[in-house]
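Issue 218. Parser rejects a valid record. Input:
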Amino acid sequence: RAAAPRAPAAQAAELPADRLQIATCGSQWTVLAMEGAATPRALAQHCAHDYLLSACGEHVASGDKDGQLRLWCARSGRLLARLAVGGASLCALELAACGYAVLGDSSGMIKLVQVDAMLRGEVRGVSFRAHEGKSTCTSSRGVAPSIVSGGTDGAVRRWDLRALLRTAYNQQAP
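Output the parser choked on:
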């Protein structure tokens, strides 16, 4: 007797990371199996109900106008952590390979939130004023280790990630 086919969600949980791709669109993400040169196969689809979405590795981050950041398991769609990141609306979100969620908000601030700390229920990171008006876009894909931000003030700026973190942690010393 032939075994029953396994459910796609179970296959997504067992797939090695190098054969997994996360595709985001709007407030949804799809877990894809990358099988050689063949067309990717959709294994699972999840919805965050937020308007900002970013994926990196095993996680998907989502954000909303109420200043809430959520971290999801990309494979299962399970909510892993939720964090209120201030009174301003989130306008930009990137889940960066450097281990930070990079957020831009409606008050011109850029916030770097440590993903590992968030998973432990802790709030760790740094925030700084980047723009007059809204911080509307962020990227950490440029010259490493740096972050690029853009705002409604018309400016595009590059920030040295190491210098920002060093300054923030020096200011926290007792």
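Fixed in the parser; the record now loads. The radius of gyration is 18 Å.
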